[in-house]
Amino acid sequence: MSSNLGIPTRESNYADWYNELVVKADLADYSPVRGCMIIPPHGFALWENMQRALDDMIKETGHQNAYFPLLIPKSFFDKEADHVEGFAKECAVVTHHRLTKSADGKSLIPDPEAELEEPLIIRPTSETIIWNTYKKWIQSYRDLPILVNQWANVMRWELRTRLFLRTAEFLWQEGHTAHTTYEEADAEALTILHDVYSKFAEEWMAVPVFRGIKTKSETFAGASHSYCIEAMTQDLRAIQAGTSHHLGQNFAKAFDVQYQSAEGKLEYVYATSWGVSTRLIGTLIMAHSDDKGFVCPPKLAPIQVVFVPMGKAEGLEQTTAVAKDLAAQLKAKGIRVKVDDRAKESPGFKAKHWEMRGVCMRVDVGGRELEAGELGVSRRDEDEKQMVTTGSVVDHVTAQLAAMQGDLFTKALAFREANIHRIDTWDAFAKQFDGEGGGGFVLAHWDGTAETEEKIRELTKASIRCIPLNHEKPEDGQPGKCVLTGAPSQQRVVFAKAY
Amino acid sequence: MSSNLGIPTRESNYADWYNELVVKADLADYSPVRGCMIIPPHGFALWENMQRALDDMIKETGHQNAYFPLLIPKSFFDKEADHVEGFAKECAVVTHHRLTKSADGKSLIPDPEAELEEPLIIRPTSETIIWNTYKKWIQSYRDLPILVNQWANVMRWELRTRLFLRTAEFLWQEGHTAHTTYEEADAEALTILHDVYSKFAEEWMAVPVFRGIKTKSETFAGASHSYCIEAMTQDLRAIQAGTSHHLGQNFAKAFDVQYQSAEGKLEYVYATSWGVSTRLIGTLIMAHSDDKGFVCPPKLAPIQVVFVPMGKAEGLEQTTAVAKDLAAQLKAKGIRVKVDDRAKESPGFKAKHWEMRGVCMRVDVGGRELEAGELGVSRRDEDEKQMVTTGSVVDHVTAQLAAMQGDLFTKALAFREANIHRIDTWDAFAKQFDGEGGGGFVLAHWDGTAETEEKIRELTKASIRCIPLNHEKPEDGQPGKCVLTGAPSQQRVVFAKAY
What we know:
homodimer, 3 domains, 5-stranded mixed sheet, 14 helices
């Protein structure tokens, strides 16, 4: 059931389709270190484009980047009880600072004489080391707010890993801010949710998202409450694409960070933290890709247009010259182009090669077509090749890249809308999530208790992805009765099986 | 003997001057983790500017970025004998993947049941994990060259650390390339040395450098030979600012990376690796800064111009409005500006605050001066404030930023030239390096043996920084007699005490 390029179709095996696509599209690969991935140049160029756009948005909203140590003293973890509970079970522990020859001289072992007095943890997230630092940075209300972001690698020793979606090491940004009031911290967490994460997902990734609040059981370890964005995958599951946490005064109290207010009183600081990671790449792949490989929104694509010159001998020289000239014109307009002039590969091979890797448009420069004054232009998300007069290729490609960005979003939104179900009876709810499939997003009423939430998860494997802040329809925000217990509910919440 | 801002003068205590400047200029700070630094926003903005410029140059020379795992299996280290010798003694070793409660329940300990089968090393550099990957990527000559770079954090458990100059964790880029021939790999290593590192040091950092080859004793662990750039500090020592290594076939053989040549033969691949790190920031600080604090070349400065509006009440409103208007005009020209409108700080405090942090130009917007149609403009590297008509401030500042970039380089070059000594007798040589001071760069003849090199190091603490490729004077490249042994020498080499 695999396609001619050797990846399974989505229908035959969605999980294998994803796993094989990631590797064959040169987006990521397995490494010899359990759960850690290699990101080859093509995948990393995608991440760089995402980083650049996000970094600009993070800076536009008033934040600055900084860098904090990779290693965190074990004792710091003990300071915030929920936080340590959340991370101690899956962390990489550094215990020695030297290797030495084993007794038989044949291999290297951690040198027993170089054991650390206190073990160090590779950061799974940096709240503790950062709040230990903020204690030094914050004395007066005039030192606030602190609006800092960090781009870093982090490590969580997950049991089951999947490329991009859940890896032991991943790359991310983590924002850590400090404020004088609860309200200011909440506004900050919501600014990130709406003006950075949600905007980035929809306008750059072309992925529509629900913005919402996590239930208590899904709240970040150490937070007062967590906001999130949730996207839908093509196999009808939910994927959490970003989180923004209001940390209350939890970390300020754990690390004793107080400031002197304008009135001269000592007060604890309020905090937020927020992050998105290389998991966004997994989200992106799942949103748009097809059985031929990766489909990437033009704004983020490492290569937006590829030219394939055809022919032999003099004919090939001519088509290559035309391809290079057109490519140069597009490059001058800021478009990321490539001319695939590999001598030993066929045009058919090249077409499939770039389809797999998510190049948005392909221009075939054929000798006969060129003589007729036309070139064949294909858009990655459309089946038909269009014939375009040579002189208008640059304008055509430019316009189609913009159109594709919008079309991908429209298509993803339509797909999501077709797979949102408003369900009010338990039988229908259970049936919707029956079997191994995803089941889409179910907007249902919930009585607000952790017991009901857990019961529903046990019965259906569906969990509450968020209590939405933005409603598809106004009536979704109206009161009703819990789909399981019949008890009163304030609004519909989003149920789904989740990645 | 400390200046009025509380940092020692360079003359009174150069080491303390550096250490205190780094912290007080908000460039870096100590962390609770031994040898690991915190880079606050101001210092990180500087690093981002350096990264951006370097990254552009690395890409312009045909390289792509990628990412490889933070952790390296211990067994990989065993594969290249020199390499393991160079790094095993100073590496952070991960031995457990979980913390658990201690027997008394009071603290966390590495869970004995979660000990790793094979310890993992936090990368001190990535040759081993990358060459293990290249084995997969390389089959045919058509897969070559591979031109890959990685931006990453690395860890070397150094005994004595200093902010930026030598830290346990540091940020860097590491390039790793693979080639079919020895000559192509050498050309690659030299391209990086000349067209990236040397160019960046001189044109962006305004720091003149010697480009050269390392002697065998200073060659990278696992390399065939190492190229380097060496700069001079104000205390007359050498600082190695970047290295570019020809790895020969050492790693290809250690990891069995062979390719099929065009003739169908199996051949081992040739390799290079090259890196610059946050150590460049230390180099930059040492090159230009003064007793008032950090002096930064405009091309890299996080803030190029600061406006200080003065006066009270309505007067202050007016000067602030003028400052903001001029700042907006400069910003539109791509210049990094700040208006310091803090209400509670005096203009004198602000001037010193920004001097310490290396802002290139300050514009004082005084009420009386404004009425007279003039503003006071100060350049960080000059003592005199200039009065400039308000209408020409934008042009003046723009021109002076360009001039300052050139002037810093000229000044650093003149300083270096004044401290280069061509010495041909042992007495004079020994005297030049006598005492605790630096001694500058001595261009002297050397007989090419490791014994003489080591003997000179023992006697004077001066080492051979490089065998230069670029000569200050052509005659420096002519043969002569070793300054210690009198044996024949091919050219003068650079001796200095080194950081």
